Amino acid sequence: MIKKGLICGVSLSLLAGCTSFDRLLEEDGALVGSAHANKTAVPQMTDYDMDWNEFFNKAEDAGTEITSAEDEPEESANEEGQPEEPTDTDEPAEPAESVEPEAIPVVANPGAMNVMVNKFWSLPEGYRPGDLIKPNVPFSFGDENSDRSKLRAEAAESLEVMFQVAKGEGIELYARSGFRSYETQASIFKNEVATFGYEKAVLYVALPGTSEHQTGLAMDITAKSVGLELVEAFEGTAEGKWLSENAHHYGFILRYPKGKTNITGYAFEPWHFRYVGVEIAGEIYAKGITLEEYFGDVREF
Question: Could you give phi then psi for residue 63, rounded to 5 degrees?
Answer without folding.
Answer: 75, 10
